[in-house]
Amino acid sequence: MTTYLHRIFLVSDNDKDPIVFVPTLHRAYRVPREKVDSIPRFVEANKALPQQSTPPDYKFTGSTLFLTNRCNLACIYCYGEFGLKKNMVMPLQIALATAEYILRCAVELKRFQANILLFGGEPTQAWDILKATVEYLRSRATVLGCRSRATITTNGLMETEQARWLAAQMDSVTVSMDGFKAIQDVQRNRSFDRVFATAREIYRLAPTKLMFRATVSAMSVSHLPDIVRFFGENFPCCAQAYEPLFKTGRAKKNAAATQPSTDLFFEKFLEALPVAHQYGARLKTSALNFSRKSGEAFCGVAARNFMVVYDGRVVACTRMASEDAEPVANLFSYGMYDKNNKFLCV
């Protein structure tokens, strides 16, 4: 029988016993601290390793565009400390150059689909750039004989006409919303009424395109099954993603922005799964992979992230886009847009 070596990862968990994680086997164990030194780097198993087709270096068929650092909210945990006082907007030239680059890579690699995620800040605060980028992606894809996919993550605080445009033109709209009114208004600056109205309008026009992404704090973690029920009752069949709050950016300075207990987060997440099933909703969290296509890379930092920031920097992590908020952000920058319409490795 053929056996394969699967890599073992050791994950610290504050003052608790560490966790042994084997992602390619979908296994995780908590082990006594005194046993750590005896844990090998690999384990043998007869399950084959996932096969992944990796494009050449610096050939990307997808990108995340940070259109602006401006945001019309001031969430208590914002990793980038974005807000209305920020005013950097991506020049249209950089946005279009990114779209052109991934389209040409897609054709060259015979993958024939280019994907753009619009991010921020709040991307709708750069509305003209947003629309022009999506329109360029669509038109150039048609010329090149390539498919295109345009998605957005938004705080939902926008005009009704903007919501209708997104419903019509985007392939997917993820609304960042932390739950029902009592939670949303505390964590996301009294924005529940307007964000809920935006989500209802998008759901009315394009229910299969709408998704939700919620940040779970120490305050909200116990309510996670109720939050899932809230979304399920109001937006049946919409996917829901939940991520624990991390002490980055504004959260470092805000005592109300506290991380949830790791154990309690997973306990409540698993408790919420049957609730989601009642409403035809799919639950996700980056910390728990239900897919059969697990790999050794937890996220794109160790894989193939091509994220272009409003000032032309190319970064590998969304949380490191703002150099003001994260002093180590420069460690995650690996390229820069050049005036000659090229992206250069640095």
UniProtKB/TrEMBL annotation:
Does the record carry Metal-binding as a key word?
yes
The residue range of the signal peptide is none
Q: Name one Pfam family in it.
A: Radical_SAM
Cross-referenced InterPro entries: Aldolase_TIM (IPR013785), rSAM (IPR007197), rSAM_sf (IPR058240), Sulphatase_maturase_rSAM (IPR023867)
Chain ranges of the Radical SAM core domain: 57-282
The cross-references to SUPFAM superfamilies, in alphabetical order and at most eight, read: Radical SAM enzymes
Asked if the keyword Signal belongs to this entry, the reply reads no
- Gene3D superfamilies per the UniProt record, alphabetical: Aldolase class I
Key words, A-Z: Iron, Iron-sulfur, Metal-binding, S-adenosyl-L-methionine
Molecular function terms from GO: iron-sulfur cluster binding; metal ion binding; oxidoreductase activity
Q: Which PANTHER family match?
A: ANAEROBIC SULFATASE-MATURATING ENZYME HOMOLOG ASLB-RELATED, RADICAL SAM DOMAIN PROTEIN
Protein name, per record: Radical SAM core domain-containing protein
Per the UniProt record, the source organism is Candidatus Brennerbacteria bacterium CG11_big_fil_rev_8_21_14_0_20_43_10
